């Protein structure tokens, strides 16, 4: 019902509890015109869920002594600069990965089905953006920071982000269907992406070609692995509290309170044609992952995940509050 209300064409769910897979469910179509159903093997773009991958990879370089968290990023990327001298001189990888530079994100230049910005424009774009908060005083979401860390990792290792993703995450964890890009010639079950208009119609988008901070592909069942380490790119919430802060639903309605005490680590991903959500509960070794191939009238993966969380932990209060945009 939620997917139908939002208009997203396809959606896949994976749930792990006490370290065991307890649910896999697929809804709708990965290809609307071909009426191809979603499956456990459907590969989806995950958008900003890839931020945890970037942080994990950089953390592995720190662990090996190839990088550190607190040195100025200019020591790695001399071309790094900002409209703020303080940001130029003192910004570290930790600042970039925790969204605390205070610099505007410039999302309108790459938040499109066919973005206007590629990797070569990341540093100049960051350098031209205005200061919206004093340095290190407030959290302000900025995708460019993750893209800059991607560039720094390339400079430190001489390897592409795709290569680092393969060697440090995909291969060690056995994620054979996870990578930076896939197409139908490489794999027979890649979800096409759709944008849903106000009348609920899903319109096909071209394959996204975006900077590495925002786009990774993986299948839903590979996303459902227990949390093994803490890294940036996660929102840490000690419940009681609310989830879903990184998604679209807070723009539509007040988010519901989850009134059971436990630690939650979560993130969401949104790009044209993509919405996704992952929620981890380390104390019970539980994961709830929902991936979709549409940007709908509400954030379907978030609502689906929250309903599952309600059932998983026997939360009595209803969680659904949002209405589809009209």
From TrEMBL:
Beta-lactamase-related domain location: 7-296
Pfam families listed in its UniProt record: Beta-lactamase (PF00144)
Top-rank taxon: Eukaryota
Entry-linked SUPFAM superfamilies: beta-lactamase/transpeptidase-like
PANTHER family hit by this protein: BETA-LACTAMASE-RELATED DOMAIN-CONTAINING PROTEIN, D-ALANYL-D-ALANINE-CARBOXYPEPTIDASE/ENDOPEPTIDASE AMPH
Family the UniProt entry places it in: Belongs to the peptidase S12 family.
Name of this chain's protein: Beta-lactamase/transpeptidase-like protein
């Amino acid at each position: 019902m939620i997917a139908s209300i939002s208009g997203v064409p396809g959606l896949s769910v994976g749930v792990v509890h006490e370290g065991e897979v307890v649910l896999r469910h697929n809804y709708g179509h990965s290809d609307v015109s071909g009426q191809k159903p979603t499956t456990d093997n459907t590969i989806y773009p995950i958008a900003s869920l890839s931020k945890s991958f970037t942080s994990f990879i950089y953390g592995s370089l720190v662990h090996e002594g190839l990088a550190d968290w607190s040195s100025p990023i200019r020591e790695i990327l001399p071309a790094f600069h900002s409209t703020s001298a303080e940001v130029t001189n003192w910004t570290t990888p930790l600042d970039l990965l925790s969204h605390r530079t205070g610099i505007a994100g410039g999302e309108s230049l790459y938040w499109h089905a066919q973005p206007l910005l590629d990797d070569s424009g990341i540093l100049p774009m960051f350098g031209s953006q205005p200061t919206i908060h004093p340095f290190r005083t407030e959290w302000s979401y900025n995708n460019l920071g993750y893209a800059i860390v991607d560039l720094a990792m390339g400079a430190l290792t001489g390897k592409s982000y795709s290569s680092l993703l393969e060697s440090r995450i995909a291969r060690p964890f056995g994620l054979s269907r996870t990578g930076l890009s896939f197409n139908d010639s490489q794999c027979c079950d890649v979800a096409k992406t759709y944008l849903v208009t106000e009348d609920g119609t899903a319109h096909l988008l071209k394959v996204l070609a975006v900077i590495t901070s925002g786009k990774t592909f993986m299948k839903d069942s590979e996303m459902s692995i227990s949390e093994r380490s803490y890294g940036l790119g996660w929102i840490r919430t000690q419940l009681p509290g609310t989830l879903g802060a990184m998604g679209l639903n807070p723009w539509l309605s007040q988010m519901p309170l989850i009134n059971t005490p436990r630690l939650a680590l979560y993130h969401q991903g949104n790009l044209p044609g993509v919405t996704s959500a992952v929620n981890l509960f380390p104390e019970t070794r539980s994961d709830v992952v929902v991936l979709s191939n549409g940007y709908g009238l509400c954030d379907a993966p978030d609502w689906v995940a929250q309903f599952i969380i309600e059932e998983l932990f026997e939360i009595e209060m209803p969680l659904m509050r949002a209405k589809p945009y009209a």
